[in-house]
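Review form for a predicted model. The reviewer records the input and the model, then writes brief findings.
Reviewer: anonymous (R2)
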Amino acid sequence: MKAKTAEKVEQRVKSGVSLFTDYDIYLFKQGNHFRLFEKLGSHPMTVEGVSGTYFAVWAPNAKKVSVVGDFNYWNTQTHPLFPRWDSSGIFEGFIPGIGIGALYKFNIESNINGYKANRGDPFAVYWEEPPKTSPIVWNLDYEWHDEEWMKNRKKNNSLSSPISIYELHIGSWRRKVENNRWLTYRELGPELADYIKKEGFTHVEFLPVMEHPFYGSWGYQTTGYFAPTSRYGSPQDFMCLIDYLHQQGIGVILDWVPSHFPGDEHGLAFYDGTCVYEHADPKKGFHPDWKSFIFNYGRNEVQAFLMSSAIFWLEKYHADGLRVDAVASMLYLDYSRNEGEWIPNCFGGRENLEAIAFLKRFNEEVYKAFPDVQTIAEESTAWPMVSRPTYVGGLGFGMKWNMGWMHDVTTYMSKDPVYRKYHHGELTFSMLYAFTENYVLPLSHDEVVHGKGSLVNKMPGDDWQKLANIRLLLTYEFMHPGKKLLFMGGEFAQWDEWSHDQSLQWHLTQWERHNGIQKLVADLNTIYRNTPSLYEYDFDPKGFEWIDCNDWENSILTFIRKGSNPDDIILIGCNFTPVPRLAYRVGVPLPGYWEEILNSDAIEYGGSGSGNAGGTTSEAVSWHGKKNSILITLPPLAAVVFKFRPEMKNQ
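Model under review:
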């Protein structure tokens, strides 16, 4: 009886029972179907009272496709899928008796070159834990409890709100001491939320959680574009992590990698024995740097695949933003290639017109569907208007990493202070273009890997000077226009370069000088979040004014940040030398009392304790083009931050 029922169901599927409508196929062929995850892949379901799983896969050059798995002993003959009649290249079928937890792959025999192999499911939502490579039949049922966060998300993600991002790698943030094992998604939630709230960050950004075969790629060699890695738990476990963070008032940004993919056989490369997802010509389809494949952005079905992946993470996992990796490699056909190793576009130029069109479409569709999220570009060139709307000619991203600021400031800070005055422009140059994009200031994982050393070990001098320089750098970052990003370990000055195989060096925080930097970051976040002048006009020149950017001889910068409230003014003084500057006169825009609200040289941060006794009152002495000025102490290798307090008098 069961055999007859199964035969009946399979026969119905063969004759047209499907999750696809004609309109779905039309949209797919046009590259306009952005929820393919609802159609392709594996879907547990019931057909006429029979439980099983519907499978669908796009393999346009396949002659035969069957489903193999632990349910049929990986037999390629027992469960064929049927090609659709509409030349879509989709094979589909309903297989009774297969339920949640079943392991499977698609056995694909090519119609062109006789290629035959078991391939993973590009739309799988769950995979075996690597190094195993089979997808798992699964559903994404989950009861969310983050209604309050989602209701207020537009404000929390607004460009005029404070955004301070803690970037981390899940597998190495904190590990169990007894066996060096990483935390699961569910274990991570409470520990991470408590820490983020203590340090005061508004958002976390996870290095790619999408399934990846090589752990050492940190997720940037993605194979599972619809699945969180099973190394740390199930899809529901990852949902629980995001849900918990949201309940604690913390936003979640996911790294997303549409720029390239690895060649592992269970992945996307040569999927049906031909180049389906990638360009066939290696001059367009292969990355010389990463030894990986480049998506064919001009193919409609590939556009729909990538767009569906982006929408998937925002819809199914409530992600608050996507940080798009390696945008520069997508924009330029000659990226990391020598002459003769790339193919010009139809106009003879180096711009990848298909990728540009895809990025614009990506941003348009994401913001159309989720107007309260942010897209963020890691783009390292001078490509104009990355974070400007597409209707004015931009790429449409919400924000862009300021790689220029990062490079200049870390290069400057790595120099011995005796030479810094000759490189003063590396500090000030960022303000010439600071408002041409909506910038995030990234002190990211890229700066503490591949032999670059830790952030603190880039600093010159003895240990005290290195840590003082770090305090100065972090304070300068938080006071500079732009949203903030800091990679894990930087908030307590980890000495060693980051290793994905180990926990952060949490033991360092028992020492006052490292614990002091932790306190500084917490205080910087508190001041940043509670002071509108430090975030309201992050992307507007009316929120910033130099007091003096020309004191190169003393390696000193003084500037102010302004908000919509005329009295909301912050004055910052930075001394990039180990020489204390006493009675240093600074012009101020308003007469009155200026309270010292932060001093990176404070004893509680591990500094020397030199400062301004809580604040100072202005004098009617013209300086720096201002009618009034204050005399302040600028401690060695330190920054001081003053807030105008019209209601206070000198104590």
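Findings: The domain at 541-645 is CATH 2.60.40.1180 (Immunoglobulin-like).
Further findings: The mean pLDDT is 95.
Recommendation: see findings above.
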